[in-house]
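Re-run requested by the PI after the first attempt was lost when the workstation crashed. Everything re-entered from the original request form. Ligand of interest: FE2/S2 (inorganic) cluster.
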Amino acid sequence: MTAPIDAEPRIAPFPPHLRALGVPEGDAAFEAVLDVAELPPGSMARVSRDDLDVLLAHTSDGIAATNDRCPHMSAPLSIGELDGCVVACPLHEGRFDLRTGDPVRMPTTGGLDPAGVYHPTWTPGGREPKVDPPGKKAQARALTRIRRFRYYPVRVRAGRIEVALPSTP
Ligand code: FES
């Protein structure tokens, strides 16, 4: 049976332990941020409230909301690319799975994965190997740890995407 065309989009589940900190329970935490029609399947959008930038991604598992900051060095993922549930960062070619919050490809700069395992720098195929001169910058790159995504609960009401956001002081 095929779903009706105007069926509400699915909401992507996320690991419960990766719920964003500071998001209260209950209906009051949800805010309407975007029309459903503005986020077709396969697309991403940034919505901002005060200094919080939220990434909305319509993945193959449904709509997910997390910070619009790459878990590597904070680049805006909303201008990257979405392939299924994997978002590609526009800055250092890192790829991250929105189902698990984990990297599926480390950034070109290398560094530490969420478990603290070191990965060296790498060069995409077809390019000259990049030399990483030793020094503070190389040390900083090597010690930069990728964090797992933190997620904001999402729901759809009356054609609007609502996201549960932290309360503002
Ligand atoms: S900032 Fe995204 S991979 Fe480096």
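Saved to the shared folder this time. The chain is about 5% helix and 30% strand.
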